């Protein structure tokens, strides 16, 4: 007799797999799936044999690669017979974007725009999908929207290696074990997993040197996995806009760190579904800016001052920025949109003018009072996260480090309940500090994304203040700490849960109540703000990770490959989701206007059209606002640029950040303000040409791997150019100087991947001054291109 211990993880929890559990597949379908997953496809030749597919070497990175690709696909069931169409002159590829039209619409497309295939009888047939057929294809804009281009493993290893080189130098083993890592656009957590791997190896190597004791060879793998589990469970954080990515990251981190007899890690307070770039911050404006009328002196024309957690706001002179308006809120300027909704746009323009007028003395009294409430809630939030951490913690001692923390002895489901009810205040009659602050911050963010057809619900300034008071301060009432779900009693281990509830309530007081569901039900304006937040996943860094910022000042390493996407309005791309004609045909402006008018007669298309415009415009205005991204003022909005100031702001004083991104910021004449800060932090700049197609983008595109250090005080960084493979970088730093410096191509005409120490260009103020003189005939070395 033997016992198999259950793996109580989300991936195996019936509550998380309802769709799979309820799916009824016929045996022949299951056998077909197993067959396709077990054997290669037949190549069509006689006597050829199908090969066996081995998954033995399938790793976390390969799983992540599959996931990143699947993000761009969309499945649907044909409601009626559909025919596939394409652009004239394009060859058909079932892995490319698919466009489908009904039989009635097929006449609008030429023979060259229709997709044909040759059947078994050698006859040419239209590519047709009958009613009820499941179609799973690359969707027109899904990849563009998700920006899901998976980072090759060699680049991931390279970036992590040189980022950690800055961090672990001079640190003890325990110092290495204590480093925190955040991946702000994590996808499948490829960079987090690689950082865990390299940190675990570095910790064990250094601990062995410090103690003089070696781990027996047969035990090293298990000890390594335990260290990896410790790092993942305690020090890893991630953010992604896609909720599926958060679930996959949880699984990939577990699989990467799993060991026999090990715990199932719980990442409820570490992995967040949110938009890393759009949220409120712990920043304040001086009150004198709020009453200013002169151009250039008004608050929204200036950057707010950061008030780090652990420091105090000037209670009579500073107001939190998310209590104030901005001229970018609900600001929609597209001519077509204006012509389609003239009355609502006019109403929004008038609202914006009133909402951003200078504040008077009475307003300042209210703003300062609300800011004090925010101070108290933020302190309570720090304590709340600590309490939740203690109640959900799993003790784990590793080689050379005894864990003195108390094991909470809670299951995954119990941890989830603590997170949802006692932390997020779901199903609770009185919201805790997290829920109050989040709703207030979400409300402010929602004003940037307000639906055009809901202009009448925009709050006046007094209404906004009143709403914020209800959210932050609440109304006088006794606190109900019980759960209404099961007869007024908390459904899991009530004694402990209720005691924890009382502990948390002691933190933020019992004299007021904030019943968020009741507020939403009674106030359509607040309900709309809540819905906008749910759609956009606003993410407030210093709220979500309040305890970390209070104790450490930020993350030790922020790393990743952020999306390289310009935020711009492409109405033909939007409309093609409903009518492929906009993508298949090359339409003139006049034709686009004609077909647009017809397309927007459909209520579904019109709703989607305005929703997409609102989303695009809201992001653009938020990211272009001086109060949100002052370093990017005047630049075109490409998302990767926004991640740089975010990483610098949310990194610790001695932290590092590392990103793979495009090189536009290094030569854009409008990026001078950003470059002035960037050069002062840059440690490594490795520029790649995509000739070897490491990325699924054009071979002529270039990009770079960059490492930044917050603690750096002067210009001092290394550059290597014309790279085609990361291995070249290692050879440049580790190679001998005996050979001659290799050229761009070798003797056989292949791209040269050999490194050489002399390929490293060391840049200081002197070199930047030279660049400024040569390229711009200028002495402005701080912003040199």
Descriptive notes:
The chain is an alpha/beta fold and 785 residues long. Among the domains are: 76-138, no CATH class; 284-538, no CATH class; 571-624, no CATH class. Strands 10-9-8-16-17-19-18-20-21 form a 9-stranded mixed β-sheet, with helices on both faces. A 3-stranded antiparallel β-sheet has the order 3-2-6, with no helix packed on it. The protein has a 3-stranded antiparallel β-sheet with strand order 12-11-13. A hairpin with a 5-residue loop joins strand 4 (116-118) and strand 5 (124-126).
In short:
This protein is an alpha/beta fold and 785 residues long. The strands form six sheets. Strands 10-9-8-16-17-19-18-20-21 form a nine-stranded mixed β-sheet, sandwiched between helices. A three-stranded antiparallel β-sheet has the order 3-2-6, with no helix packed on it. The protein has a three-stranded antiparallel β-sheet with strand order 12-11-13.
Question: What structural keywords apply?
Answer:
785 residues; alpha/beta; three-stranded antiparallel beta sheet; 30 helices; 43% helix; 12% strand
Based on Cα principal axes, name the global outline: globular
Q: Write down the Rg.
A: 28 Å
**Alpha-beta content class:** alpha/beta
How confident overall, as mean pLDDT?
90
The share of residues in helices is 40-55%
Low-confidence stretches: 477-494
Strand content: 5-15%
